[in-house]
């Protein structure tokens, strides 16, 4: 923005500041001289733009160091203060791109709410405590505006930019004290989290004490995911892809019974189609990836990669649906979509490309549409509860949290006990007639019997989707300090048979007999549909193999050796709870499938008990934040108003002096997760008050910090 | 390029032309004056840049009108001459981007072999016939070069740019005579192709006479595909996606038996990874789509969308494969890839995004790798022959045609009889150790028994893929003038039952009885695994329904009415050959599945007979081009040399005076399709000569014009 814009912006914030014009000042000396005529005392500032090392695929964040001209700042200090690596002076192109001005003209006043998200500010603590007005260039070096420290901070706050206050002391480069303290305490926790003597191949931190690190290790050491050189993208290895295939097989079979057919629409969307529905595109635009070049030629117009397919598909629905006889139209696709989020990415939970299915259906009536919404939502519940052994709560989203452009969003909400945060598990939307109006999807009213042309009806539409996030929720729910724990129904290997007790004293004959018997156990189990295999590697000890397969989450281990042979039994060891039970050799094909089903249901019950215990039903605001801080979600009487939801979010965010154990926890507050279908008791209008604003409550609503 | 570059280029082509420098000439008048001092007669040219209307997703082609200054040119004339729509003057940005010069400085000499592919030239016929030297600006308006018409044409030819000679007569805007004649004769054929009295819902052209139009109609009216608003991308509707699901189910089951596991790698590739293998990236780079922007932020470095996943996956193979015990590694993925081709796109056959599977495996030895290559290739043959009833020929690709960066490419080659062109059906590559060397995928030699460190072995790799092109080949092979013809094994609906003979004379009781019996026929067929349904719509006549389902390719129709009821029979009508056979009601569940299998095998035999009859085994060059021109492929003794292949291509291209019936036929010549595994007879070295160059032949090779 121009310097005029800056001054206008200051005025609109009621920041009244002296401003003078002078010759262009190419350096501090010239600037100081230009200001000498000014009668009040002042102090010069400087604003330096740095770029830290950024993964190539990431949009680089610009760091603006805003300091007194006299403060000694340098890249090393910036790295330390901002917790980044290899900062360098930003190129003029990058500065121009982010702030619209040349590096010489940059000032904190170049930051606006429009560009703030890609900028971080390191604010010199000496500047903060300065008593004198500070001189800044308002985006041009031929003007100066004098701001007090408080005025500057007000301005920065108005833009929403992240500000870190820093002591640029050449001697220590220390962070300000409070921040340092947080870091030290967090470091201590991480040291406690280290598991003593953890096997080299195993997880070396505890889930409860260093959850982010645990999650990374459990995925990579458990051999189901690898990190990738494009940020926010991950490799799904066979171990996790198999779970997705299991979910696909179940869900695909169920929707085909409902008359849904699969199709494939292109991954590319023209900007014209993408922008057709206004609310919808506003919801997705900031995250859309654009293809602008093919080979070495620029495309005449950039093409978007679908973030979802409403606007890809509905122009064609308008063409295909000609009569009420074409209804219902029920199409699904299994594909990947791209949402280039700038938030912290996390494997499975938040990735820039993810796999999902998206169903898009059209009906003549609202009633039919809503019936399908609920049917699909229950299939999503079944995926979580019956396949993944993960409990969820079915409910409806608040107006604020519903799908952009839709009418009603129903959801299955999950819960990650270790962080106490809710997580959206899958959503089934009734889009109402909003999209059919935008895209002109109409049929003639079949019930119209009057004269003249039949009136047009806009169809009722649904869309519904579930993603590979399912896998992340499952892993976070069941995994333990030894690694992954897979529910039997989705485990690629359900049973691993390991030879034991084969030492130097064992004769070759006995060894052969054990090996033969093991191969029979495996083939007998496979014959009854159990996914079993053996680990006959000579290279490794039984103990090593136990760790190896525990890490990978195999639900049941069977140990078998010469001693077992004599007793005609095997020893089964459950992954979920470590319980060891001998099973008669003759009963293996009967007992093992039963045991797997028991494990499946025990895992669900265990997870459900935890989730239930973490839903705090409360009616007083005083208990709201403490409940969240104790890693719960809360079920509260609520008025369903948007501004009350905003207010709850604000009032439940962490305070600046909060030294949270989980550094990655969001500083933002709680949001509504869902209004559960299963309401604890009827809310009588006028009798029960909203937990936050004391107006009449209309529902019980689940609130929580969330992913 | 600069004007110096232009003059150098002319010299290198041995085009010696007078050149003079003068003041910059902003218009024709100034130019004429600047040249007055020049002693020889000359005539001024003008070069105008137009851009026709272009689908937003396409790279726009620039049209350069090169004319005498006095010729009356305008956009309407350009549209007509170049067969495009809505041409306008190109923006200065576009001209600069394509030619590197400002519009005022443009001349035909701005065209180079590097930019020629995105340019078309409309050459004024008056200029062509000009006896005087013609004045051109060599990419700058302060210089003039004088060229004869022949010199100019030589220059243009050297760049490879497309040149259309045109009469810009204000009166007629007619094309030059020869071009006009071609068009007229082609128009006549198209009129013949119209099917007299074709039902409104049906295909209204004949397959043999207007194949491109027939193909478009059969896809859209057959309800399996729709055109999309991003060029080169298409919507696979349930009718075609079901075929893909059938292929997936078969192939996925087979490769899992071979120990292949599915995984999912990201669709994005960093440029660093993409460019790691040089030959490979050269093969794909011109077609790579680049994401450069997310939301409103430019990415620091563009990210490619995978055109294939070798370079996506192999850096991780290097990490995962640590020991010979990690081998073989066999991973497959079902995904979509993007190749932004600039050739004429065609649904299923050549699309910018397409669905496929790509298998990537690693072995310790070449022997194991090659075994898998052949096993997979035979699965591809089975997909074509056993599922799609499409004959293919298995063989190996020539060095010129093999996969970029690979060692050996095996292929199943198909054939489209209507155009007489070959088509690559699916490829299974042995990559050798090339990629493992580039990406450092090594294991220690397990056989090494010497002292010291074990030597490293580079693994042997394969990659193999088959795409949705399969569906296009199938449709082109079997479809007829009535629409699609699906082989029963891949048809979503195998049997359609249609009530017949229900007219005003039929009693309600009889009508109800027919309807009830039809519902039983359908349920009985479904019970024995036949995908059957009925069409009970009141709205339409049986005749309309016959057309409707014939268009959609349903393999078998069953007609049933009051008359059939009396005779306790149904009437079956085969889609493939129209044969009608009554079947006793009591035998329907037995006879229909048998009949479907007969249809499947008859369709294959029919297609195979045609293909076999179109493979001409010849040994004399004189018969080569005539055989191609009669819509055959040729099996010839060949020397396997690259330059001989180039030579064959050149010698078999169409001549300029060739007025081909199929306008879309490639003007390029034949290429090698494959060296069939099944060689007609041993070639004894020295005995048999290459069909083209008369050197010793080493193999029988299949050549043809191809897709």
UniProtKB/TrEMBL annotation, chains A, B:
Domain Aminoacyl-transfer RNA synthetases class-II family profile: residue ranges: 241-487
Keywords: Aminoacyl-tRNA synthetase, ATP-binding, Ligase, Nucleotide-binding, Protein biosynthesis
GO molecular function, a single term: aminoacyl-tRNA deacylase activity
A Pfam match: tRNA_edit
Cellular component, GO annotation: aminoacyl-tRNA synthetase multienzyme complex; cytoplasm
InterPro entries associated with the record: aa-tRNA-synt_IIb, aa-tRNA-synth_II, aa-tRNA-synth_II/BPL/LPL, Anticodon-bd, Anticodon-bd_dom_sf, Pro-tRNA-ligase_IIa, Pro-tRNA-ligase_IIa_arc-type, Pro-tRNA_ligase_II_C
Catalytic reaction(s) noted: tRNA(Pro) + L-proline + ATP = L-prolyl-tRNA(Pro) + AMP + diphosphate
SUPFAM superfamilies: C-terminal domain of ProRS, Class II aaRS ABD-related, Class II aaRS and biotin synthetases, YbaK/ProRS associated domain
CDD domains attached to this UniProt entry: ProRS_anticodon_zinc (cd00862), ProRS_core_arch_euk (cd00778)
One GO process term, biological-process aspect: prolyl-tRNA aminoacylation
Enzyme class, UniProt record, top EC level: ligase
EC code: 6.1.1.15
Family to which the UniProt record says this protein belongs: Belongs to the class-II aminoacyl-tRNA synthetase family.
PANTHER family per UniProt: BIFUNCTIONAL GLUTAMATE_PROLINE--TRNA LIGASE, PROLYL-TRNA SYNTHETASE
Protein's name in the database: proline--tRNA ligase
Species of origin: Neolecta irregularis (strain DAH-3)
């Amino acid at each position: 923005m121009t310097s005029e814009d800056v001054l206008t912006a200051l005025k609109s914030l009621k920041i009244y500041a002296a401003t003078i014009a002078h010759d262009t000042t190419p350096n501090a000396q010239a600037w100081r001289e230009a200001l000498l005529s000014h009668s009040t005392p002042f102090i010069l500032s400087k604003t330096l733009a740095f770029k830290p090392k950024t993964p190539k695929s990431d949009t680089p964040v610009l760091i603006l160091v805003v300091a007194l001209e006299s403060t000694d700042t340098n890249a090393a200090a910036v790295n330390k203060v901002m917790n980044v690596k290899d900062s360098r002076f930003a190129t003029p192109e990058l500065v121009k791109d982010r702030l619209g001005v040349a590096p010489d003209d940059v000032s904190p006043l170049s930051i606006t709410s429009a560009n703030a998200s890609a900028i971080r500010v390191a604010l010199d603590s000496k500047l903060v405590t300065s008593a004198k007005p500070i001189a800044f260039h308002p985006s041009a070096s031929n003007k100066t505006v004098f701001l007090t420290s408080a005025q500057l901070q007000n301005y920065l706050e108005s833009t929403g930019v992240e500000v870190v206050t820093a002591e640029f002391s050449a001697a220590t480069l220390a962070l300000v004290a409070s921040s340092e303290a947080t870091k030290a305490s967090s470091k201590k926790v991480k040291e406690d989290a280290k598991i003593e003597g953890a096997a080299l191949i195993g997880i070396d931190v505890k889930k409860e004490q260093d959850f982010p690190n645990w999650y990374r290790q459990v995925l990579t050491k458990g051999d189901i995911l690898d990190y990738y050189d494009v940020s926010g993208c991950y490799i799904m290895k066979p171990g996790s892809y198999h779970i997705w295939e299991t979910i696909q097989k179940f869900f695909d079979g169920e929707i085909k019974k409902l008359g849904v057919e699969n199709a494939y629409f292109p991954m590319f969307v023209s900007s014209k189609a993408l922008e057709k529905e206004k609310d919808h595109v506003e919801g997705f635009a900031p995250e859309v990836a654009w293809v602008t070049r093919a080979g070495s030629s620029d495309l005449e117009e950039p093409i978007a990669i679908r973030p979802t397919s409403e606007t890809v598909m509905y122009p064609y629905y308008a063409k295909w649906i000609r009569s009420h006889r074409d209804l219902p139209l029920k199409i699904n696709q299994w594909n990947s979509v791209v949402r280039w989020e700038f938030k912290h990415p996390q494997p499975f939970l938040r990735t820039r490309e993810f796999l999902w299915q998206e169903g898009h259906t059209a009906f003549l009536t609202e009633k039919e549409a809503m019936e399908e919404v609920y049917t699909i939502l229950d299939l999503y519940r079944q995926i979580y509860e019956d396949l993944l052994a993960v409990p969820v709560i079915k409910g409806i989203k608040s107006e604020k949290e519903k799908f952009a452009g839709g009418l009603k969003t129903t959801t299955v909400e999950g819960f990650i006990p270790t962080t106490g945060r809710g997580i959206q598990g899958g959503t089934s939307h009734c889009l109402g007639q909003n999209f059919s109006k935008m895209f002109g999807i109409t049929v003639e009213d079949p019930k119209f019997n009057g004269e003249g042309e039949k009136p047009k009806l806009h169809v009722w539409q649904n869309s519904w989707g579930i993603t590979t996030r399912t896998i992340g929720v499952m892993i976070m729910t069941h995994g333990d300090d030894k690694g992954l724990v897979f529910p039997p129904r989705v485990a690629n290997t359900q049973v691993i048979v390991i030879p034991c007790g084969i030492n130097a004293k064992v004769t070759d004959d006995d060894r052969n007999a054990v090996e033969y018997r093991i191969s029979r156990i495996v083939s007998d189990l496979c014959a009854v549909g159990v996914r079993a295999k053996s680990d006959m590697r000579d290279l490794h000890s039984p103990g090593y193999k136990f760790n190896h397969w525990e890490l990978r989450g195999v639900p049941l281990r069977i140990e078998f050796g010469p001693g077992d042979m004599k007793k005609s039994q095997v020893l089964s060891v459950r992954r979920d709870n470590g319980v060891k039970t001998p099973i008669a050799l003759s009963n293996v094909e009967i007992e093992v499938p039963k045991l797997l089903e028991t494990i499946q249901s025990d895992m669900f019950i265990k997870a459900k008990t935890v989730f239930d215990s973490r839903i705090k039903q409360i009616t007083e605001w005083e208990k709201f934040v403490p409940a969240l801080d104790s890693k719960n979600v809360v079920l509260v009487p609520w008025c369903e108003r948007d501004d009350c939801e905003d207010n709850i979010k604000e009032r439940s965010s962490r305070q600046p002096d909060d030294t949270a154990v989980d550094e990655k926890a969001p500083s933002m507050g709680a949001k509504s997760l869902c209004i559960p279908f299963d309401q604890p008791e009827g809310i009588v209008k006028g009798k029960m008050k909203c937990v936050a604003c004391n107006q009449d409550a209309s529902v019980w609503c689940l609130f929580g910090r969330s992913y």
